[in-house]
């Protein structure tokens, strides 16, 4: 603090006036800060809102999307059958047949591989498959059991 020895001493009335003036100045400052915060908040909201042109463009895009979706929905509302029962049955039969072939070939390969792998020592199965060019179900992400679920309970064995 600077030395205050040379300063004049204020009377009680002058001190009260100075305190009142300081309080009034602080109140005015507080009000100005609040007004500035409100103005900044309003400015931020104006900056984040869309312009009229942007709103019109977005409305046009949504209108075209709605028309497209309604066009796609119309055949579904009319109950039109897009796939005939015969086509569906043929597809299910083809799926069941192909799954059965897959299952048989997989079983044959596993039998042959178990015989071959007995004589291979010191090498990992994945390395041998890579060298031979064999793609396993796991390597390609195929799931026989998952696809069998598509065939359903009506699966026939041929």
UniProtKB/TrEMBL annotation:
GO terms for biological process: homologous chromosome pairing at meiosis; meiotic joint molecule formation; meiotic strand invasion involved in reciprocal meiotic recombination. Its main location: nucleus. Keywords: Coiled coil, DNA recombination, Meiosis, Nucleus. Pfam families: LZ3wCH. Residues 83-141 form the Leucine zipper with capping helix domain. InterPro entries: LZ3wCH. The keyword Nucleotidyltransferase does not apply. It is found in: Nucleus. Residues 12-72 form a coiled coil. One of its GO terms (cellular component) is condensed nuclear chromosome. One of its GO terms (molecular function) is double-stranded DNA binding. This is Leucine zipper with capping helix domain-containing protein. It comes from Haematococcus lacustris (Green alga).
């Amino acid at each position: 603090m600077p030395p205050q020895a040379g300063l004049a001493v204020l009377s009680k009335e002058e001190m009260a006036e100075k305190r009142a003036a300081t309080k009034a100045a602080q109140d005015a400052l507080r009000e100005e800060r609040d007004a500035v915060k409100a103005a900044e908040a309003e400015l931020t909201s104006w900056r984040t809102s869309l312009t009229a042109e942007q709103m019109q463009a977005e409305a046009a895009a949504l209108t075209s999307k709605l028309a497209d979706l309604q066009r796609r929905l119309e055949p579904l509302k009319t109950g039109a059958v897009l796939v005939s029962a015969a086509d569906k049955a043929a597809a299910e039969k083809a799926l069941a047949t192909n799954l059965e072939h897959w299952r048989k070939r997989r079983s044959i390969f596993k039998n042959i591989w178990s015989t071959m792998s007995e004589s291979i020592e010191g090498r990992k199965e994945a390395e041998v498959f890579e060298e031979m060019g064999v793609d396993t179900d796991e390597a390609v992400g195929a799931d026989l059991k998952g696809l069998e679920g598509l065939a359903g309970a009506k699966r026939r064995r041929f």
